[in-house]
Design a protein that fits this description.
about 775 residues; binds alpha-D-galactopyranose
Length: about 775
């Protein structure tokens, strides 16, 4: 009897122990030894990256189900600060912005959620997600320990947490992890700043697993001891190499690629980016076979509605409206070859479970061509001006988005004069209403020649803001005219320059109401001066019998923004590659629909139609895209050879030191051979080092010559060698024989003592340079 009692007591104790343990670990997600632990059990995260503001709300469920049917178990998402807080303290978490609703929908579909609330996110989104109004404090230090910046971050994170705190795994919700900042290593080195963000996140989100993501080349710079470290890299990368350093430093850490890039984003004026499905799938297969967690960025990219597309830097490379990303699920939610192949691969890792059925596709329809019957010419529809002696940026006039017109009177000009200024981002100059020319920030254009004119002639400078830069140090990106406006004339061989003053400034806010309330006239009654194109708003109605998805074609238009039934659809620009805008059927009505196009150049023909397939790779360019004029050869007149040597084989950074520092403004790298013996040279990233061995800034660099660039099948132009992106690269066209050369104007005089070179990240390292020479001038 006594023994029985003891056994019973033991049994009860063990049972209690087990249930206590279960109770303890239910609702937990943690880092265990070499693996994540979900409710105490080993768990491999298979996450699909989706951004709710980039998908029409009525389609959220469809897109989540598509991810689930792939075999994913988690949705990874960013929170875009600027989409939620349009003015300081004014928050919106409704409709498209219903973050909590989106998370609940993920949970309803049996998906976990990884939350990435910034404050900075990059993501090819306006200013990397930061609100433009931060720039009203002109001296603000963004993403640094600036008291105002930190104060606003804390307010924002509190608001986000207020929406989703109840949805963490500990509270029975789907959110398993929260990210702190985003790839800070490609911005700066400050553990103090990253710690501050961590503390704010921790304070607001409570007891939840936190992580930080970076590149394998720089994650140690800002890595905090108490956060999980994850790596970001793209399709084609050598996976063991990507985790080598992390495994050395933290042998027990679970491994996760928190952004495995399925494709890439598109910029205006460049071809649509694609990455081979086979490479993406091989990467996922390899990771899963090794128990490595991942998030596939993007599994479905969606659309940068309205003015939300960002811009890349160094240089200025504004992103297009489509965020198709060559992802497995297309911009409009269609399954692709990549999708079906990926689904087959993920089927191998379902632990005996079946993948759910793939939801039915949303059918796309065509809409017959229709003409725009009404136009409101911009110059007849300007808002009331502000008067200002000096010229200022948009932000200083409290304007965040849209266009701005600066007007003043010219002095009498007997002959041509030169007008110099810096405009962000696309300026058109008019004298007495006649179009003179444009300055395009993408090309660093800063001067325009004015014709002779009468005293008092009206000078108009119309500047359109594109997306604010979302990557690198240049995110502090003011819009409008950002310099003085200088007028120079040559008289008897001498140059006279004066600053233009006394401006009238017209703020043309990008809002539906701005465009809707203009005064429209029949298009037929308007003719441009000397046959010029007419900037302004164009309005039409079109009929739809059965609303469904379509792609509105703007091939004959200039540049601007489109609204349908009051929905901001995005930017258009005739140069391409994107010519159509994705029009979700859920935003169309049966019967009559209204469309307004604000075209700052003016259409060649004011017509539109709905296509069943998108046109996202059709360029219509005026200027050549390469860094070599026809027949031009490498010209080393005035250059001195300062180094000759051999680079090593394999992946990873290599540093070359010259015998002694040399002063120069121009730099030429002449590659003589490659390691694989093929006729192709590639550079992923290139830095020059100053006399102290520090990297010199690359913001002002321009390529003045590259003997060959692969721009037919991909965007492999020479400036990719200093675009701060380790996964993009300069490649010569395959089959063009060595030597290959790139010449860079450094934008100023520097002492240089060596260089750092990063080859491509694939394990076969295509185009790895071997013998090379350096020349400087
Ligand atoms: C980085 C960023 C992302 C995105 C990708 C490129 O990984 O973290 O936000 O910008 O690059 O698409």
């Amino acid at each position: 009897m006594y023994r029985l009692l003891i056994s019973l007591m033991l049994l009860l104790a063990t049972a209690a122990g087990v249930s206590a343990q279960e109770k303890d670990e239910t609702g937990t997600f943690t880092a265990g030894k070499g693996t994540f632990l979900l409710n105490g059990e080993p768990f491999v995260v298979k996450a699909a990256e989706l951004h709710y503001p980039r998908i029409p709300k009525p389609y959220w469920d469809h897109r989540i189900k598509l991810c689930k049917a792939l075999g994913m178990n988690t949705i990874c998402l960013y929170v875009f600060w600027n989409a939620h807080e349009s003015e300081p303290g004014v928050f919106d978490f409704t409709g498209q912005n219903d973050l909590a609703g989106f998370c609940r929908l993920c949970q309803d579909n049996g998906m976990y959620v990884i939350l990435r609330p910034g404050p900075y996110v990059c993501a090819e989104w306006e200013m990397g997600g930061l609100p433009w109004w931060l720039l009203k404090k002109k001296d603000i230090r963004l993403r640094e320990d600036d008291p105002y910046f930190i104060e606003r971050v804390a307010i924002f994170e509190e608001a986000v947490a207020g929406q989703v705190r109840d949805l963490t795994i500990g509270n029975g919700g789907p959110i398993i992890m929260v990210q702190v900042e985003n790839e800070y290593g490609s911005y700066g080195a400050s553990k103090e700043y990253v710690s501050k963000i961590r503390d704010i996140v921790r304070e607001n989100f409570g007891d939840i697993t936190l992580f930080q993501c970076d590149w394998s080349s720089n994650f140690t710079v800002n890595g905090l001891d108490d956060l999980i470290w994850t790596m970001n890299f793209g399709t084609g990368a050598d996976i063991d190499q990507q985790f080598r350093k992390l495994k050395e430093l933290r042998p027990d850490s679970p491994l996760m690629c928190s952004e495995f890039w399925s494709g890439w984003f598109d910029k205006w004026g460049g071809h649509h980016e694609t990455r081979p499905a086979e490479d993406m799938i091989a990467g996922i297969d390899e990771m899963l076979s090794k128990g490595i967690s991942f998030s596939l960025y993007m599994t479905h990219g969606g659309t940068n509605w309205g003015h939300w597309a960002g811009a890349n830097s160094p240089g200025f490379a504004p992103d297009v409206t489509s965020y198709d990303y060559d992802a497995p699920i297309s911009e409009s939610g269609q399954t692709t070859y990549k999708y079906w192949e990926l689904r087959k691969t993920l089927a191998k890792y379902m632990d005996g479970k079946k993948q759910p059925e793939v939801p039915k596709a949303i059918k796309s329809v065509s809409i017959p061509k229709f003409a725009f019957s009404e136009c409101a010419p911009l110059f007849d529809n300007l808002p009331d001006p502000k008067k200002d002696r000096d010229i200022r940026t948009m932000e200083e006039y409290d304007q965040g988005f849209g266009s701005i017109l600066y007007r003043t009177a010219l002095p009498e000009l007997d002959g041509p004069a030169v007008l110099s200024f810096e405009a962000h981002d696309f300026a058109q100059v008019f004298v007495d209403g006649i179009y003179i020319g444009k300055l395009d920030r993408r090309f660093g254009e800063r001067q325009i020649t004015l014709p002779a004119c009468r005293s008092g002639a009206r000078l108009d400078i119309l500047v359109e803001a594109m997306g604010r830069i979302n990557f690198g140090r240049a995110i502090k990106d003011f819009k409008g005219i950002t310099s003085d406006v200088e007028l120079s004339v040559d008289i008897d061989g001498r140059r006279f320059t004066c600053d233009m003053k006394d401006w009238e400034v017209f703020n043309i806010e990008d809002e539906y109401d701005t465009y809707k309330d203009m005064e429209y006239k029949p298009v037929m009654s308007i003719t441009g001066k000397k046959g010029q194109r007419i900037p302004g708003c164009y309005r039409a109605t079109f009929n739809v019998s059965k609303p469904s998805d379509t792609f509105l074609n703007f091939e004959t238009w200039g540049k601007g923004l489109v609204y349908v039934n009051g929905h901001a659809m995005g930017r258009i620009w005739e140069i391409g590659p994107q010519q159509t805008l994705y029009m979700p059927g859920c935003w169309l009505k049966k019967g009559e629909n209204e469309i307004i196009v604000f075209d700052i150049i003016g259409p060649r023909e004011a017509v539109c139609e709905g296509l069943t397939e998108p046109l996202i790779d059709k360029l219509q360019l005026e200027t050549p895209k390469t860094h070599r004029e026809e027949g031009q050869e490498l010209d080393l007149t005035g250059y001195t050879q300062v180094y000759e040597g051999c680079l090593e084989e394999g992946n990873g950074w290599q540093t070359i030191s010259f015998d002694k520092p040399v002063g120069c403004r121009e730099f030429c790298l002449e590659a003589l051979s490659s390691h694989d013996g093929r006729d192709m040279a590639c550079i992923a990233e290139l830095y020059l080092l100053d006399a102290e061995g520090e990297r010199i800034p690359r913001e002002a660099w321009t390529v003045t010559f590259a003997d060959s660039e692969e721009i037919t099948y991909g965007n492999r132009a020479a400036d990719k060698s200093f675009d701060l992106q380790e996964s993009t690269y300069w490649s010569t066209a395959y089959g063009v024989p060595f030597p290959h050369s790139i010449v860079i104007d450094l934008g100023g005089q520097y002492e240089i003592s060596g260089l750092q070179y990063l080859p491509r990240m694939e394990s076969s390292v295509p185009g790895a340079l071997k013998d090379f020479r350096i020349h400087t001038r």
